[in-house]
């Protein structure tokens, strides 16, 4: 079999940025957040992704600023290590190996050299028993140190990291689990605990959801499941402790945060309203509504000028202390489920899928950046549980990216199904999609499958629906519309023995259309709309259907519900080969002959990559993930790899991304790719005499070039000069505006770069 | 446990009156409550908040303030007078006019030497409290606007007075104003409205706390006259403030019906710089809270919704028990209904009039086992208005239904009722002036005698006959050993069925038994620490059955002059936990002649039959066991049954009486009906409505 060791499943692009509270650097210039295996550094002013701290091999679960040095950050990960970074330069300073999975990290100024970590109790990890431990960091000059000096603080720890917080000056730590609040005083080594009743007559749900401690007073704020906020005081008394209750949130309070001065308390919950309570005068509160998804975390900068909220729609909002939103860092929006396929917009090469409710999102995987949302439903979305609202369920691009077809529907649970087919034209002027045609009753029942013809000349849309018909739609064929020819109308209605269609697909050159009706595949000619042939391979309903590409375009692949993968030769109309495998997703690569098939067997998913011409897989990867994979896409690379290794060749021109049921977007990375990335990061570590900012890269390279020029006595040819110029322009255009030096400095350099240098000629007379 | 035909009476439109003022006396642990109708009630705080005394009000007598001076209780009202009450005889002692127009507030100093009242004309008047009366001393500097609230500094040297838009601090010695603190008006439209300082509290450290109509609780410094801190408590008014004795906790009552607690807490643990911090909020009222009082272990609040709420502060309670539970007192702890057992008449007592009703009759069978068809609707026979301004203190109808008697503070009136078919007429038989005014009235079971409990634990006897009535004599307790102490007036007087015995209890917790044939005191039941709430004499055994405010029960054999064996067994074994945890006192004790071992009791929430022949439940047995018993087969029931049979079918019970035809009359006054007759509360936006 093929060797698989040099291909690895990684989280790269589209990861969650809202897993842990983001932190703001003490100069308020950077926002750091965890994103998959990385820690990402964003600029607070431009929302631009500056760089990422790369080194963990599993999900990063917590970050916190080093209290001893505000330019350093600790990060902890499930891989069992704590790493200390210089986050401005992106340099890994130290790695502390703890040895067990870590789930949260806390530090306090008073406890220098001690980290507080959430670890899962080794004895029974099933019961989700977590322990708060303190780890003494050994003082050692080495890069990688083992930190084994652990001592347990408490084992009554909630798995929610926001249920633990340090109190005033680090004198005590407060942590809550279920209905109990515990306060542990370090000096006295004593724990005070306070319990609430589970419910009372008024139906309160008192379970703790989050904790925050006042920075200067002995006051603990706790959030509760029913939306109450309690401020606890006098908690060194068993009986005379007291609390005041505030109630604004109508659902669980997700997070609480005191401003560094302690004058305000910030809270957030599912309402996606940031609430600012004035400390001491609790009735006075300010609101910042309509922030998007529900608020999961809030953090404040150390000078109190900026707040950061992270939201359930994978977004970080940067908010000024005057309660104005000044920046939004949007990750890939992931709802509960992705209903559309994963698609690639042919123009922008962006990944397209469901985003906000009723929207399609365009996400650039290369820059790991959310581009924009396209409002498909164009109706107000009402946040209410159980409300049946329109959702985008199907979407398709034509081959040039000038047309987009979408299907939105509602009434999935009830019997009265409502759906619209919409066609969107790309408007060159506004560079976005504009609604062209809305078809209200495209079919009498739900649309099952939809595809555009792949020919360049005429665009045609085929929809197959549960009313046992498929329809072809063309532009302007309807005689009733006397206006422009731009609107779409039905061109042909086809059916086969009153069977329900299950899938449809165009061949690569659009000369054939394959529509599967239960067990039967029918092949049609789109020009004449005559049925050419039928292919049948019982038993099992056809699930997926695709034509081969390029040299394999004579093949048609199909998968059935009875775990069969079949390949027909369309020239002979015979079954070329078939094999028994339970394929959950069949995904052809548009840039090569390769086809990827995900099969789900005995609780894990395997990947096979093969060419339709031969039944032997090019590449197999067992146990890609433990969930079923229903969505996958090949994303074209910006610059193709030139690996000649047989097993990695299929990744040369495009990259395969797939979405698990946990809404994790995973991909494959090859060893060569990783080497390249590592070498770039190593380079950063080596020249550490100067901070490696883009500014340095720009000017430093320039200086180097100049030095080279000065040292090199021989006049050089034009070629390197040109590359220097293009490098300068590239740097100039790709560097965020706020880190660029002053325009006056750049101007001469920029102009110089355009000059076709004949310095060599000029230098001669000088000499 | 026996079936009864029940008259479920819901036509008694009793409306409790709203609470206007509260005053707590820490030394004798009593709390005085003034209601809107001018009545004053005294509750015993350590005896399960039993309503010991009721002083009925008068027409046109609005009380605005209450104040204890020592063990003396004073009130002041909008009629401009200061009233002292005679608590032993439960009546007004005297009224002194302050000559300053309507009085808004009254406050006594801690030394017990002076009373200050705030008047409509802008004066604070000081009265000296003398041995038997109060004496006007002088006016403090007159202000331009009315004085709404007053508070003495604990040293007695300064007074803070809340007025319109400001608070004035007076030096008591000179009578001059020391400081003027200006309270801000509200913002927006309420800018033009005056800010009323409804309540002020002067603390010993010189902090003045005010609650005003803008909804703020403000803290002021009396040295500099500056505002220290202000808390916005509500959008409406803060009407009442009360501070605990050690000045570490403050409660504020608002017109939204919430009580907000503030505590004096050190912000950094272990250090001494304390601040007033808003902590808890209690919401037990639907309407304005007009008065709050922080007593030792609880917060007592009362307002327009006429209920007295006792909310315990659990951090101050030593042991949590039934005595320290949340308590809401809706109805008076005495009977407002009396029944003519033999003729099916009911007399309802309202503050200003009496109503006589005839009970309905049924056909004796209904559509199901539970409800019977009504053959004749109940009928209102009589509406008897009170003569004079005083409100009715007590009333009674004789068992035969021929006599009606009522008493006010000034007089006692006896009427004879003539009922010929549909014509009802009454004739006044007797009118007795002040000395004989009764605290409790009762007829003998053969309607031949009227007993009237009066001052000094005496009971007057009036014999009734067709020709007229005659004052027969007075029963007085044996006064051999204890002559010095002032006897409290008697309250509860049941007479035995055979007319031989009479028992009377007074608020000193004494129970005297008299022999009616000899008209002499027979004996005295040993004094128990709790007050008697109801008692009855068994018709056949002549045992006196007594219920106490702490839910204990005793049976005392009159003939043997000792507790019965059953009573001793109850004391030895103790009562069930659920029985002890009930929070309203038993209001009536009845006996069923057909089952001599049965005692029928009721409180506001339940009706209970105690079968003295069955074993007592202990804490392990199921107390409410009727359903379990129903599911058991006949043979096993015996082993599972115990003495207490509780019926919770009826709620908000004012009175239960067993008629002579073995039917029960249950007078209910559903709280929803009371709430629906209250004025509309302040409109509040409620989430999701």
From TrEMBL, chain A:
Protein localization: Nucleus, Nucleolus
UniProt record, GO biological process: positive regulation of rRNA processing; positive regulation of transcription by RNA polymerase I; rRNA processing
Primary location: nucleus
Sequence ranges assigned to domain WD repeat-containing protein 75 second beta-propeller in this UniProt record: 342-663
GO cellular component, as recorded: small-subunit processome
Pfam families listed in its UniProt record: Beta-prop_WDR75_1st, Beta-prop_WDR75_2nd
Single GO MF descriptor: RNA binding
Keywords on record: Nucleus, Repeat, Ribosome biogenesis, rRNA processing, Transcription, WD repeat
WD repeats: 53-95, 201-232, 246-278, 440-473
PROSITE patterns registered for this protein in UniProt: WD_REPEATS_2 (PS50082), WD_REPEATS_REGION (PS50294)
PANTHER family: WD REPEAT-CONTAINING PROTEIN 75 (PTHR44215:SF1)
Full protein name: WD repeat domain 75
From TrEMBL, chain B:
Lineage, broadest ranks: Eukaryota, Metazoa, Chordata, Craniata, Vertebrata
Gene3D superfamilies: YVTN repeat-like/Quinoprotein amine dehydrogenase
Protein name, entry field: UTP4 small subunit processome component
Entry GO terms, CC: 90S preribosome; small-subunit processome; t-UTP complex
GO MF annotation list: RNA binding
Alphabetized InterPro entries for the sequence: UTP4, WD40/YVTN_repeat-like_dom_sf, WD40_repeat_dom_sf, WD40_rpt
One Pfam family this sequence matches: WD40
Domain of life of the source: Eukaryota
GO terms (BP aspect): maturation of SSU-rRNA from tricistronic rRNA transcript (SSU-rRNA, 5.8S rRNA, LSU-rRNA)
């Amino acid at each position: 079999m093929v060797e698989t060791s040099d291909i690895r499943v990684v989280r790269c692009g589209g990861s969650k940025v809202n897993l842990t509270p983001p932190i703001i650097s003490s100069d308020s210039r950077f926002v750091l957040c965890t994103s998959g295996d990385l820690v990402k550094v964003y600029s607070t002013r431009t929302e631009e992704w500056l760089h990422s701290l790369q080194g963990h091999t599993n999900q990063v679960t917590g970050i916190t600023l080093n209290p001893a040095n505000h330019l350093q950050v600790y990060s902890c990960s499930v891989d069992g290590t704590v790493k200390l970074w210089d986050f401005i330069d992106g340099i890994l300073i130290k790695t502390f190996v703890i040895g067990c999975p870590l789930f949260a990290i806390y530090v306090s100024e008073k406890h220098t050299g001690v980290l507080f970590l959430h670890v899962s109790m080794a004895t029974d990890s099933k019961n989700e028993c977590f322990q708060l431990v303190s780890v003494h960091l050994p003082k050692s000059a080495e890069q990688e140190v083992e930190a084994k000096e652990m001592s347990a603080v408490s084992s009554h720890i909630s798995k929610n990291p926001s249920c633990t917080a340090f109190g005033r000056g680090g004198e005590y730590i407060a942590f809550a689990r279920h209905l109990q609040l515990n306060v542990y005083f370090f000096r006295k080594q004593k724990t005070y605990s306070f319990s609430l009743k589970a419910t009372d007559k008024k139906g309160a749900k008192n379970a703790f959801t989050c904790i925050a401690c006042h920075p200067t007073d002995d006051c603990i704020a706790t959030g509760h499941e029913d939306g109450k906020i309690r401020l606890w005081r006098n908690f060194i008394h068993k009986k005379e402790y007291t609390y005041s209750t505030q109630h604004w949130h109508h659902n669980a309070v997700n997070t609480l945060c005191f401003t560094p001065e302690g004058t305000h308390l910030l809270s957030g919950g599912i309402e996606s309203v940031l609430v600012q309570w004035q400390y001491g005068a609790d009735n006075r509160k300010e609101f910042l509504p309509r922030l998007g998804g529900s608020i999961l975390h809030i953090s404040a900068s150390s000078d109190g000028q900026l707040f950061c909220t992270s939201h359930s729609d994978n977004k970080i909002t940067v908010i000024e202390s005057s309660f104005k939103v000044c920046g939004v860092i949007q990750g890939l929006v992931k709802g509960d489920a992705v209903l559309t396929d994963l698609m690639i917009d042919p123009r922008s090469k962006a990944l397209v899928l469901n985003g906000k409710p009723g929207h399609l999102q365009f996400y650039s995987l290369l820059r790991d950046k959310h581009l924009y949302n396209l409002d498909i439903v164009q109706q107000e979305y009402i946040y209410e549980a159980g409300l049946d609202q329109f959702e985008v369920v199907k979407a398709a691009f034509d081959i040039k990216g000038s047309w987009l077809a979408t299907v939105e529907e509602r009434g999935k649970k009830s019997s009265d199904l409502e759906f619209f087919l919409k066609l969107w034209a790309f408007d060159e002027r506004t560079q976005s999609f504009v609604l062209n045609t809305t078809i209200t009753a495209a079919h009498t029942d739900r649309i099952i499958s939809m595809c555009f013809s792949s020919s360049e000349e005429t665009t045609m849309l085929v929809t197959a629906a549960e009313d046992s018909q498929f329809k072809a739609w063309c532009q302007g064929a309807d005689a009733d519309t006397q206006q422009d020819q731009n609107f779409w109308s039905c061109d042909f209605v086809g059916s086969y023995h009153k069977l329900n269609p299950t899938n449809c697909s165009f061949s690569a050159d659009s000369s054939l259309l394959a529509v599967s009706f239960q067990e039967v595949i029918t092949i049609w000619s789109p020009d004449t709309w005559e049925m050419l042939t039928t292919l049948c391979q019982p038993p099992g309903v056809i699930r997926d259907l695709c034509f081969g590409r390029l040299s394999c375009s004579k093949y048609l692949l199909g998968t059935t519900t009875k775990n069969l993968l079949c390949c027909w030769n369309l020239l002979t109309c015979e079954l070329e080969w078939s094999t028994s495998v339970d394929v959950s997703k069949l995904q052809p690569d548009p840039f090569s002959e390769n086809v990827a098939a995900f099969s789900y067997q005995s609780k894990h998913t395997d990947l096979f990559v093969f060419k339709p011409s031969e039944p032997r897989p090019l590449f197999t990867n067992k146990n890609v993930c433990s969930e079923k994979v229903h969505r996958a896409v090949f994303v074209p690379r910006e610059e193709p790899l030139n690996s000649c290794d047989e097993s990695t060749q299929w990744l040369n021109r495009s990259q395969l991304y797939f979405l698990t049921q946990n809404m994790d977007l995973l991909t494959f990375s090859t060893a060569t790719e990783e080497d390249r990335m590592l070498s770039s990061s190593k380079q950063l570590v080596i020249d550490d005499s100067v901070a490696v900012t883009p500014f340095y890269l720009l000017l430093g390279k320039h200086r180097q070039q100049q030095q080279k020029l000065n040292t090199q006595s021989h006049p050089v040819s034009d070629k390197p000069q040109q590359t220097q110029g293009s490098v300068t322009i590239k740097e100039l255009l790709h560097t965020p505006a706020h880190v660029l030096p002053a325009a006056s400095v750049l101007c001469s350099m920029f102009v110089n770069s355009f000059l076709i240098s004949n310095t060599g000629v000029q230098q001669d007379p000088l000499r | 446990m026996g079936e009864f035909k029940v008259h479920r009476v819901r036509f008694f439109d009793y409306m409790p009156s709203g609470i206007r003022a509260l005053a707590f006396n820490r030394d004798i642990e009593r709390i005085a409550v003034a209601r809107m109708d001018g009545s004053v009630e005294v509750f015993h705080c350590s005896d399960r908040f039993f309503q010991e005394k009721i002083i009925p009000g008068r027409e046109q007598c609005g009380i605005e303030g209450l104040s204890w001076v020592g063990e003396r209780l004073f009130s002041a009202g909008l009629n401009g007078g200061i009233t002292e009450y005679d608590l032993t005889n439960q009546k007004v002692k005297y009224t002194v006019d302050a000559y300053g127009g309507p009085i808004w507030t009254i406050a006594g100093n801690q030394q017990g030497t002076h009373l200050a009242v705030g008047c409509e004309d802008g004066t604070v008047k000081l009265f000296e409290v003398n041995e038997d009366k109060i004496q006007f001393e002088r006016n403090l500097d007159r202000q331009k606007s009315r004085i709404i609230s007053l508070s003495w500094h604990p040293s007695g040297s300064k007074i803070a007075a809340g007025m319109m838009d400001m608070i004035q601090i007076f030096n008591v010695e000179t009578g001059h104003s020391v400081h003027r603190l200006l309270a801000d008006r509200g913002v927006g439209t309420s800018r033009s409205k005056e800010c009323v300082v409804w309540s002020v509290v002067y603390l010993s450290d010189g902090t003045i706390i005010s609650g005003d109509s803008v909804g703020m609780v403000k803290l002021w410094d009396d040295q500099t006259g500056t505002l220290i801190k202000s808390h916005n408590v509500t959008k409406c008014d803060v009407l009442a403030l009360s501070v605990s004795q050690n000045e570490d906790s403050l409660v504020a009552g608002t017109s939204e019906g919430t009580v907000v607690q503030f505590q004096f807490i050190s912000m950094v643990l272990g250090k001494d710089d304390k601040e007033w911090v808003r902590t808890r909020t209690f919401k037990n009222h639907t309407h304005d809270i007009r008065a709050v009082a922080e007593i030792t272990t609880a917060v007592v609040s009362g307002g327009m919704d006429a209920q007295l709420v006792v909310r315990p502060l659990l951090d101050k309670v030593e042991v949590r028990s039934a005595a320290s539970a949340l308590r809401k007192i809706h109805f008076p702890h005495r009977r407002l209904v009396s029944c003519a057992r033999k003729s099916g008449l009911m007399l309802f007592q309202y503050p200003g009039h009496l109503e006589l009703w005839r009970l309905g009759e049924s056909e004796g069978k209904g559509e199901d086992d539970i409800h019977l068809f009504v053959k004749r609707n109940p009928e209102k026979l009589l509406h008897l208005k009170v003569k004079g301004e005083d409100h009715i203190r007590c009333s009674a109808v004789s068992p035969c239904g021929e006599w009606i008697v009522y008493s006010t503070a000034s007089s006692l009136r006896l009427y004879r009722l003539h009922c010929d078919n549909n014509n009802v007429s009454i004739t006044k038989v007797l009118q007795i002036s002040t000395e004989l005014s009764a605290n409790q009235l009762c007829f003998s079971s053969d309607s031949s005698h009227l007993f009237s409990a009066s001052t000094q634990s005496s009971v007057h006897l009036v014999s009734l006959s067709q020709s007229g009535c005659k004052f027969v004599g007075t029963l007085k307790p044996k006064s051999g050993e204890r002559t010095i102490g002032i006897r409290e007036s008697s309250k509860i007087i049941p007479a035995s069925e055979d007319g031989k015995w009479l028992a009377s209890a007074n608020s000193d917790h004494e129970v005297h038994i008299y022999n009616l044939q000899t008209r002499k005191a027979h004996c005295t039941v040993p004094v128990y620490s709790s007050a008697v709430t109801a008692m009855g004499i068994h018709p056949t055994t002549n045992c006196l059955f007594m219920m106490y405010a702490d839910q204990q029960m005793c049976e005392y054999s009159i003939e043997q002059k000792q507790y019965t064996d059953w009573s001793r067994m109850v004391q030895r074994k103790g009562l069930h936990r659920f029985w002890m945890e009930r929070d309203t006192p038993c209001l009536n004790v009845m006996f069923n002649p057909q089952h001599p071992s049965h005692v029928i009791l009721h409180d506001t929430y339940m009706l209970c039959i105690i079968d003295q022949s069955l074993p007592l439940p202990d804490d392990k047995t199921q107390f409410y066991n009727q359903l379990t018993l129903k599911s058991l087969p006949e043979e096993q029931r015996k082993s599972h049954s115990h003495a207490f049979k509780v019926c919770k079918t009826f709620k908000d019970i004012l009175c239960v009486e067993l008629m002579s035809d073995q039917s029960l009359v249950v007078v209910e006054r559903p709280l929803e009906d009371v709430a629906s007759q209250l004025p509309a509360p302040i409109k509040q936006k409620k989430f999701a409505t």
